[in-house]
## 1
Amino acid sequence: MKLLDQSKLAWLLLRVSENFDVSQLVHFFADYWKGLVVCVGGLEPEDREDVFNFLKEVKLPVIADATSGLRELLGPLLVADPERLLSETSPQLILRIGEVPVGRFWRDLEKQPEITVFSITRTGFSGLARESSLIHGEVGRVLRGLGEIGELGDALDILQHCRRRWGQVDQLLEMYPDSEPGMVRMLSIYSTVADSIYLGNSLPIREWGQFAQREYPTENVRANRGVNGIDGQLSTWIGLTHGLDDAWCVVGDLTALYDMSGPSLLDGCEASGRVIVVINNGGGRIFERLPRVKNMSEPTQKIVANAHDFKFKDWAAMWDMDYKLFASADAIEIEPAQKTSVVELVPCAKQTAEFWDAYAQLTF
Ligand SMILES: Cc1ncc(C[n+]2csc(CCOP(=O)(O)OP(=O)(O)O)c2C)c(N)n1
């Protein structure tokens, strides 16, 4: 007997497991009046059009990761500040489409078994350790298999709250332009010239979803976080995009420090317009946002954050990369060149703290 090679076997297994039954999903939709929110994680490019058409048809509130490629296309359906919104409006149903969402709200669902979760996923992983339902298959095919659903709508008026919240967020970003979220907003405007964007740990991924511009589509976005670890991120980006023009990478400073030899892989890469943005907030600032760390003494917080004063100029020179540092949003000017450029963004710590304090005060 001729043995099947690995790729054929994987293809066959996918086909076998793809005999999905959408009737369970139709029943799930019947309860939409209890409050139904759609979460869209990373999507394969071939699924995007079907997902987009579905979302436009059902007109449900959508939490969309940047990696869905749809975030900027959803206009008034896009949910702002998902964590707080979900805890305050308590929708009873969540439909997840695509990869496991990166937002904190998804992990919070572990502790909310009363919320019914249904996933449509190519991987077959529920992404939750508690009970939930799942259809395993090509996402676009599953949605087409549903036929016409029609408008379901926003039973809890979540989108009305979101309109207000987006307005408040935009106002805060204007008030604190040199805060980290303010600089991420400015960066996202510059990066509309990129052909692809790679987001690495930690805050860059969160902050991109919450604060990046929402007008111009940036379809080709990848993110790498969580259990993946912060090491090897630059190498991953270079491997993923080697030889491709206009590839941008946005990482935190510790993430860059953990992969200082990564740019050696650029050797032989002749593509132009490649940019590595390092958001240098002087350590792993994601930890400061954890309630347990917030209550620690300042010296202990510094240790937890691996606080440092390093800058990346000499590192860029070591790998023959162009280099610029910007310490305010207004000053940012990114001109991709033939050589890979390192752009170091240094947010104002005071404005960042003020931004987050004001953000915490916002109410729906
Ligand atoms: C190999 C590895 N070591 C440690 C961690 C724990 N960790 C998660 S996020 C993070 C900090 C990342 O800092 P930085 O890249 O500066 O991003 P920021 O938090 O400031 O956005 C660390 C150390 C990890 N995920 N992987």
## 2
Amino acid sequence: MRFTFVPDFYFETFDKADARFLNENGIKYLVLDIDNTLEPYENELPGDGVLAWFAELAANGIKAAFVSNNGRERVERFNSGLGLPMYYKARKPLSKTVRRAMRDMGATAEETALMGDQVFTDVWAARNSGIRAILVPPIKDKRDPFTRFKRLLERPVLKKYMKNKDRGGQG
Ligand SMILES: [Mg+2]
């Protein structure tokens, strides 16, 4: 796989990556970011939409694990009703924790995708781990100058994705 920050898939929201899409693309394992991918920072617990999506995944035999750069308290609380494998302080884009989550799930690289909202954290972590990347826009973006600068850097990446998609290609 040629190195690129362009994600393999881009969706407006996490739940557009539904069981049907995942099945069709041979994705049986998901490594999931939490913050601004599934819920904004201030939501301690998964909402109904997230719970319904996890129920659909489980019903279709798709396994998931949380791999978050956030701390233990946040991840444990968010996962309290779900009981998924979870990894905090993951230091994405480094691959170590992503690979550990895959190992613990018994996942192969071919059957795994990482979903997140950050190109230079999540897509990069997927690339470093040799797995596919599903990007969603941040649910509630921060407005500080650093975040805005990052968004500016991400723009060509998204443009390239849309261009490739129009051609019927990927990545
Ligand atoms: Mg995030």
